[in-house]
Design goal:
Helix content is 49%, strand content 14%. The protein is of the alpha/beta class. It has one domain (2-315): TIM Barrel (Alpha-Beta Barrel). Helix 1 runs antiparallel to helix 15. It binds 6-chloro-9H-purine and zinc ion. One of its GO terms (molecular function) is hydrolase activity.
């Protein structure tokens, strides 16, 4: 439709994308072959058929298993480049991508191999498409505080190449307060701070992310809507929410996109954005997410312009660069 074409053409920034979650089944098989690794699925179709989830943990189990094919610097480079090629086709002009170093260092892949590979892909994408990008190092919240501190230590030589730290993986039972001291240290290193909160976890986890982690941006935030005072605070503080509609649907965070909280978020004056999270697993890149929202008929062209502008306003680009984009 007309609206589909309109939303697809909007220049946008992507602020919530796990690079390991952009590993398409075809690329997973190719990397497995290149690295001489056996994977427990016979075909791309069999693997795709396994992508049926009732909750976050169902997905995480298969996502960490998939990442095992990533071994060498060029694997990370090729992964990133494949994502940037797809993002550029969706008119993404800037991307701030998450990576999960612990998923790799715990398998014996050195931190520096991950960094060099991702940075090579980022540089190549900027040359190819003019697409700029930044890196966000995520701590796995199901692991302990000591492990997060050890990861932050590995990141020290690379601190100038990192924009922020984040917090992801299994939310319930791993509240933000567990990482307050790690985030304090990251802030002292000059890094921005973001955290997944309120995806499956309660509104109090969102409050903790604000008060104890001092976040600059909130990833997901859906369940903040259960607390009116918290919503008012997020609006007042102009907190950016990186919302992921198709992810929410696939992980049963919402029952249907027609009842997705994006409408309520915009009505509450929240600075919401549209993002793809783990596109290879959730059935779509950023324009698929925009079009899925458009199909609900509950958002106007003006709403989509706001969402696309919010993605630059909520980015960690400098003010002059943001002004050039909006
Ligand atoms: C994630 Cl959707 C989601 N939630 C939490 N952690 C994650 N890691 C990758 N995708
Ligand atoms: Zn995520």
């Amino acid at each position: 439709t007309d609206l589909d074409t309109f939303v697809a053409g909007l220049p946008k920034a992507e602020l919530h994308l796990h690079i390991e979650g952009s590993l398409e089944p075809e690329q997973m098989f190719a990397l497995a072959q290149r690295n001489g690794i056996a994977i427990p699925f016979g075909t791309v179709e069999e693997l795709r058929a396994a992508y049926s989830f009732s909750r976050l943990q169902d997905f995480l189990d298969i996502y960490y298993q998939g990442a095992d094919v990533l071994r060498a610097e060029d694997d990370f480079r090729d992964l990133a480049l494949a994502y940037f090629d797809r993002a550029a086709a969706d008119n993404v002009r800037h991307a701030e991508i998450f990576f999960d170093p612990q998923t790799h260092t715990d398998r014996g892949v050195p931190f520096d191999v991950v960094m060099r590979g991702l940075l090579a892909g980022m540089a190549e994408a900027e040359g190819r498409h003019g697409l700029t990008s930044k890196l966000i190092l995520c701590f796995l919240r199901h692991l302990d505080e000591d492990a997060a501190f050890a990861t932050l230590k590995m990141a020290e030589p690379w601190v100038d190449r990192l924009a922020a730290v984040g917090l992801d993986s299994s939310e319930v039972g791993h509240p933000p307060e567990k990482f307050a001291r790690v985030f304090e240290r990251a802030g002292a290193m000059g890094l921005k701070r973001v955290a997944h909160a309120g995806e499956e976890g309660p509104p109090d986890y969102v409050r903790q992310a604000l008060d104890l982690l001092h976040i600059d941006r909130l990833d997901h935030g859906n369940r903040a809507l259960e607390d009116a005072a918290l919503v008012a605070r997020l609006a007042r503080e102009k907190m950016t929410l990186t919302v992921c509609p198709l992810s929410n649907l696939k992980l049963c965070v919402v029952d249907h996109l027609d009842t997705h909280p994006m409408r309520a978020m915009l009505d509450a004056g929240l600075r919401a954005t549209v993002n793809s999270d783990d596109p290879a697993y959730f059935g779509g890149y950023v324009n698929d997410n925009f079009r899925a929202l458009a199909a609900t008929g509950r958002l106007s062209r003006a709403d989509f312009v706001t969402l696309a502008k919010n993605s630059f306003l909520g980015s960690f680009l400098d003010d002059a660069t943001i002004a050039r984009h909006v």
